[in-house]
């Protein structure tokens, strides 16, 4: 066996060793080592012309070493990391340090940037200032008002005043793991900033690659306007460089229909750059072509920044340039494996970076699947066959991972990718040329970019058209790691073995069956009630054998980050009954966000909030346009939602009674103690199994009247008097701020998302 094949096996062993870290340390690494030992003893008996036995043993050792190396490189807070300043958390502080990234626009219209800290200048607590000028280290996730971010750029010394916080654990099923995201970036705390102060005045011109990126963005925007200019810049530089200027809504549209990759500079752009460079230097020597290509790749990487997909694509491109120089035939899959191994040696934690995984899988799909698809499309013109084969191949290899992570599928993904390929090609090439010209002469770069207006506008119009189509994304629910593994095994079988390749439709049918049948069985059998953790906003989701009832939506942020991810995790594509009990207008804005993702068949609104709510007419219009039913929630009337019976007892408090699978639930809004006592006089309370409230205070009188077996509080905490009342009555209590989401099962059991080490239930 030659050295190239040995290197291939060792690179593969290294990657497998990193993947084994999905299991508890160090068992995954030892499992790879054991596999290497078994292969050493068994494989030579069946593969006599294969690798020598010692190679398998070395591969096992490499796998174990990779797992150990991963653990050594996992970011951990230093002893003086700012996240360890527990006394400063949630207090007003001023932190000094250096800006690490260009600001980007968040959904809340604030600017976010990474901040390397050096000093905790002051902490203003309840007892006055403490710890003045304390040296600290670490990296902060900082958000500030948009105007405060004006003029910020990397390597700038600033002081930010705001409140430190630690990211919370995932409190709802399917929720975004903000703590893990920060840890992957080497950060363990955040800062909600109020004010930014520049510590030094800059003299002379602002220099740096960030300044060149800004020059390109301004050049494109000057020639194309908004949002066409930032969109072209994103396709050339990557959306991370243009985040502050690219509308969040436009990014959502691209992502929702399966075009997110077009806004991430990666392999496609590298291929186009090399194609143009080699075309322009066609008459020159191989050495000159190599030099020109390396310079172009270097400029491209410097402009976009050292992101994992960019590094992978540049290394692959460099390998393609080196092969003719050495007069050797390039092996694309070997080059891809080498590129991945090299990157993972630089940073092994990238193995769990989603952008790295998707980029690697998409490239692998292009290398191993595109030729087979083009062969079947040989009756078409080559350009058209390639335009069809590329998105199909990339989608086949990335779809299982997307299902596993996002729990949704975009049915229009392949058609829209085929239709937009000409637009993306023109804009990528034209955008790169105008970008280079814009660096040298912004007016000329903007003038050249002007010719890209109609292709850019046409691309946006095409995206908006597909985005408005019904069913632009379908939730399939959570799939297991074993389902993910089987899906990729099926894909590999089709690519490697002729029998499976001839019967690809059979493999596809198996893959669909593997996903659809378990989801269908779960949906038709599942019955549960879930109270989501959403601060003080009470949210209840009842899943009744395929039918879904949603009580309250909260604000837009709650709907986007709590409700919609949970419904996607559960594979929900329609809300059958929606009940809005909120009487505060701001607590209803989430319905518009939900309606942007899911249809609502029947919408019931609390009559006390019908007047004066700005979004009421818009909600009603959207529901009715989609052939839904909109009506007030009638006081005292018993209504049937699936097998659940509901009655609005009081519209002002509000009070809502629910009969869920024979269990009597009572919801009461946030009421003060005197309001609860007055309500006890005016209303006749039923005895209930579950008392659910959004208030921090529950009086002993209320508990005595309703006599609940379980109390659930949708709040961050409860007061001490309520805790004493519940303890005295020997009632089990859950607080969503401490326990996370609370799920009730027909067996009568309650499950929580978070496991408490200390809290209210421990005290009972």
From TrEMBL:
Record-linked InterPro entries: ComEC_N, Competence_DNA_uptake, DUF4131, RibonucZ/Hydroxyglut_hydro
Domain ComEC/Rec2-related protein, chain residue ranges per copy: 245-500
Domain DUF4131 positions: 26-198
Signal sequence coordinates: none
Main location: membrane
Keywords for the protein's UniProt record, in alphabetical order: Cell membrane, Membrane, Transmembrane, Transmembrane helix
Subcellular location(s) of the protein: Cell membrane
Membrane topology field: Multi-pass membrane protein
Transmembrane stretches, start-end: 6-23, 53-70, 223-246, 258-279, 286-303, 309-326, 333-352, 358-374, 383-406, 418-441, 473-496, 503-520
Any Pfam family hit: Competence
Protein name in the entry: ComEC/Rec2 family competence protein
Organism, as annotated: Floridaenema fluviatile BLCC-F154
